[in-house]
Hints:
The complex is a heterodimer of chains A (153) and B (684). Chain A is mostly beta strands. Helices cover 12% and strands 49% of the residues of chain A. In chain A, strands 8-1-2-13-12-9 form a 6-stranded mixed β-sheet. Chain A has a 5-stranded mixed β-sheet with strand order 3-6-7-5-4. Chain A has a two-stranded antiparallel ribbon with strand order 10-11. In chain A, a hairpin with a 2-residue loop joins β4 (43-49) and β5 (52-58). The radius of gyration of chain A is 15 Å and the shape is globular. Chain B has 684 residues and is α+β, with helices and mostly antiparallel strands. In chain B, 47% of the residues lie in helices and 23% in strands. Chain B is built from 25 helices and 22 strands. The two termini of chain B are 63 Å apart. The relative contact order of chain B is 0.05.
Amino acid sequence: MGEELKVIVFALGEEEYGIEVDKVKTVERLMPVTRVPKTPAFVKGVVNLRGVVVPVIDLRGRFGLEETESTDQTRIIIVRSGELEVGFVVDRANDVTDINTDNIDLPPEVVGGIQAKYLRGIAKTPQGRLLVMLNLSEVLNKNEIVQLEQMEA
Amino acid sequence: MDMNAYLSMFIDESNDHLQALNENLLKLESDPADIGIVQIIFRSAHTLKGMSATMGFEDLASLTHEMENVLDLVRNGKLTMDAFIFDVLFKGLDALETMVADITAGGAGKADVAELLSSLKSIVDGSYLAKDAAAGTQAAAKNENGASADLDEFQLSVLKQSVESGLKAVRLDIELEDSCVLKAARSYMVFNFLEQHGEVIKSIPSVTDLEQEKFDKSFTVILVTASDEQAIAEGAGNISEIAAAAASLLDEAALEALAHPEIPEAVKAAEARTADVQAASSAAAEAKRQTAAASAPAAPAASRTIRVDIDRLDSLMNLFSELLIDRVRLEQLASEIGRTELSETVEHLSRISGDLQNIVLKLRMVPIDSVFNRFPRMVRDLAKNLNKKVDLVIVGADTELDRTVIDEIGDPLVHLLRNSLDHGLETTDGRLEAGKPETGTIFLRAYHSGNHVFIEVEEDGRGINSEKVKAKAVENGVLSAQEAARMTQDEINNLIFAPGFSTADTISDISGRGVGLDVVRSKILSLGGNVSVESKAGIGSKFSIQLPLTLSIITAMLIKLGSEKYAIPLSSIVETGILSRDSILNVHGSRMITYRNAVIPLVSLGSVLETADFNEEEELESEYLVIRKGDKWAAVIVDDFIGQSEIVLKSMGGYLGQIPAVSGATILGDGQVALIIDPNALFK
């Protein structure tokens, strides 16, 4: 038997994604973001999260998807991985659900235009929805950011 | 009893005592006759021993115990400090420091101290001298007046009483035959014989050493007897393999001389003169005591302090930072609302929080002495290793710096000092050849100036050979030959901080400079400081480090670029002004302006930061501020000035890494994040 996982469900476009609850610090409404020069385009800038300065990245931009205008549904999910604390701008974040690790399948090569290495797998919820589980440490991989910067330059 | 509760206290106090031991031992080395210092050292060692024994750190306790034994002899005048003893004591301190460091790191404070213990023991029983003497002449043990036979008070009083009650105090010098094999056995027979005729008060070397054959071939015994001294000598001489036995009667004066070996001639020469000598020496001692008394109150003046956990100070600082942000927000709101009562209250709040800020910042200030105090010892050891003579002169050790800076500044300073000692100063011969005093001098200075602290390491050594530096820089590709030709002497010297210089083979090539100096520089830069070098060939070099007073709250100028706000540290701003666009000069493709009879480069902050909604080209007049880095100046064009403000430095988190021209972020009164510009990065 696999373990039960609680995950936050969020959406980028039509696709639904999941991040384990224990990796998420808070979910915030969109707030003023201060632009930081000379950073990759998907880095939106920094925000003041109750006295702590936190960088915010656009998850669409991070995955190479087309960026969209923000709506009143837009949320910033503050995630924590090791020492790093980063905010993800997502289209919607409005649900928490339980999944069983047994119900997570290995991801196909590309899901919705996102490369497999950023994904932990595809999870099936008890309600029969499909969630794309993120591989957080890979999404926050800094080495790749450096490569991206070099490509842009 | 749970010892863990006391562990941190033990560690703190041990470090204090170790530091005191180190300092005082160094002091004693320069003035070995000052018994007052020995007393202080002894007390420190004694306390340390007690503490470590209580805490159950056996090795620590046993080592301090042996060191204490040596010091005890010294303070009672039974042992004179010499180079060997100093070295062993210093080594002992090093071992203690290692053990305490181990305990601090969570270890058990175990260390192999057997060798040190035996060295210390050999000092206590005097046998280390025998080792020295064995190589030299054998006369030492045979000397006539017995200056080495210093008696302690107890032995002396026994002898005196015996003499008064009609017995004889006899000194017997025994010499064994060269061919004697069982020296211990023969000396035992001598003792056996002597015990039959009287009481042995003292033997030199000690009985233990005699039993272990730790002597050459002669020894001295002082005994109290009723028999005739010549008869005893004869009897002892008759024991087989004894080459000679000479007895001499000790009268009261001779006994006195034995007890005070430093003035035996005076005693023997004339009774009358003795009084003078003693008066003189006691007068000298008195004078010394007075100077000691004069300087003593300053040293141990128990300051009224408490120890506070650093984490608590840090959280106090963080809380205060939050308060400061709210204060700025309140000020803003009060001016918008415009009610007098509110404005007055907020003003009062501002004043109080201003005072509070000063106090909180002061709490975190630590005298730089806590970094400097380990350097005298380090320089001493290094100078000994390198066989150079060095005076380290420390000036301004009471200069205070923020604790965060203090924690980081140690390593770069060690590096600079080693560098000065190793490569800057010439060897003793080299110095004499160059017509300089044999002993080199290294100055270590710290002082405040404005919002900065300066630390200088200056030495009167050989200086930097600029030509070689230049050649090496061109060779390593740090710069081109044309560039090199245009540079001033100072600019060339500062090339030694370039990363290309940190190769090992340059140690001897380029007057020794440049080992890891780039590491020093990057460390200092990361602290928001700067480091530079001035040098004159043949006269010496001076490394200057400039550091900010604090790293947590700074005064900054807030500026606007379109819709964005930025903060620029006030410490690097020289002045602000307005210029008309047509006064901008174009020199070789770069834009310059004239500023006080000089032409300085013009930097567009908007284009450096890639601002989207501000274009200075559309303006007729532009606001600018003049910034300064060392002797370089530049004008920076901005959109608008907002005003001065106290800002709290915030980290931007690890994800973004190092961002060019941005040193950090702060939170403004309106709750928005503003980036802090690193002015140094604006200089090209």
